[in-house]
Design brief:
The protein is of the alpha+beta class. It contains 1 helix and 7 strands, in the order αβββββββ.
Length: about 100
């Protein structure tokens, strides 16, 4: 739990320092993974929450198409597909997305 909170805080701090904007919109658009620590990946999950299985890990710079977002607990989860593999869909935390 502390790692998840720490990771979110780091993403927010890095975004503020780099002049990037985090995805705060509700839906639609092209985004890329940003703010994930170098030795980690953003987990794309089968559903909107950490209780769902991990489909794939996404490194910084991965391009995604966001179709919708929803709040689940303290996290906004977005339904996403990979730009390079549109058939691969899942949910990612919006805290690690940057609009492109």
């Amino acid at each position: 739990m502390r790692i998840a909170v720490y990771g979110t805080l780091v993403a927010v701090a890095l975004t503020a320092l780099s002049g990037c904007e985090l995805a705060t919109g509700g839906s639609g658009g092209n985004y890329e993974v940003a703010g994930v620590e170098a030795d980690d990946m953003l987990k794309m999950r089968a559903g909107p929450g950490i209780g769902y299985r991990v489909i794939v890990g996404l490194p910084n710079g991965t391009a995604l198409r966001i179709s919708s977002c929803q709040q689940t607990g303290g996290t906004r989860w977005c339904k996403a597909s990979l730009n390079t593999s549109p058939g691969l869909e899942g949910y990612v935390s919006w805290a690690y997305l940057k609009e492109i």
